Amino acid sequence: MLAESAAIEIVDIADIPNGGELRLLRCGSAYSIHFGDEELMGSEAFQSEQALASLALGRLGRQCDRILIGGLGMGFTLRAALELLPASSTVVVAELVPKVVTWATGLLAHLFDGALADPRVSVEIRDVHDIIDGVPEAFDSILLDVDNGPDGFIQLANERLYSNWGLRAAYAALRPGGVLAVWSSYEDAFFTRRLEAAGFAVEEAKVPDTGGRERAPYTIWLAVRPRDNP
């Protein structure tokens, strides 16, 4: 969260495919990415993005060979995953907005701290849904942080990821025992039930907001594909 008492400047704008835009704001040394009036992420409150990786990979209980991250953001999920993964792992990052990748190698490069140069990492400028769909048992874990929660707030097409058939596609794309982790700024009991209906064993984790705001904790769904398929 950017300080309200300091000057805030818009340093760049990114067009979202199919409409809309993201704004990169700066206040002193702090950065924030906004969609409209909504702050999507900030450089000073990132523990929940780190937890998306650490909680999911901690649930695997085995070596993780290949993971998919939906949403590059400011790199906090990617960096947390790389710290936990062995040198033999592969990390595919799907980012829909090309300029977010440009920010990662320019204005926000200090936040990534070389993560994009890691030989384990490849970035695809694609809709993460298109990667998930049609690749059976390709990933040990899928980490999704592409919207403000399990809906199409930023882009209506994101709802495909969280629909009944989108969750079934994610289930099929995971190896048995694999983990789908979904970040959200809010609770959603209906989404929990959709995950269960898709065949996942579901756990909800709450991560407190550390940005100095009085708000409810973030929610991370940890949905495990059972090792013995139902």
Write structural notes for this entry.
The chain has about 230 residues and is an alpha/beta fold. Helices cover about 25% and strands about 30% of the residues. The protein contains 8 helices and 11 strands. It has helices at about 45-60, 75-85, 100-105, 110, 130, 160, 165-175, 190-195; strands at about 10-15, 20-25, 30-35, 40, 65-70, 90-95, 120-125, 140-145, 175-185, 200-205, 220-225. Strand 5, helix 2 and strand 6 form a beta-alpha-beta unit. Helix 1 (about 45-60) packs parallel to helix 2. The longest helix has 14 residues, at about 45-60. The N and C termini lie far apart (about 45 Å). The model has no long low-confidence stretch (mean pLDDT about 90).
> Which regions contain 5 or more consecutive residues with pLDDT less than 50?
none
In this structure, how is the largest beta sheet organized? 7 strands, mixed
Helix and strand sequence: EEEEHEHEHHEHEHHEHEE
SS elements, strand count? 11
* Strand order, sheet with most strands: 7-6-5-8-9-11-10
Q: What is the overall shape? A: globular
Q: Tell me the helix content.
A: 25-40%
What's the Cα radius of gyration? 17 Å
Mean pLDDT: 90
Tally of helical segments: 8
What structural category arises from helix and sheet content? alpha/beta
Distance, first to last CA: 43 Å
The fraction of residues in strands falls at: 25-35%
Summarize the structure.
With 230 residues, this protein is α/β, with parallel strands linked by helices. 27% of the residues lie in helices and 30% in strands.
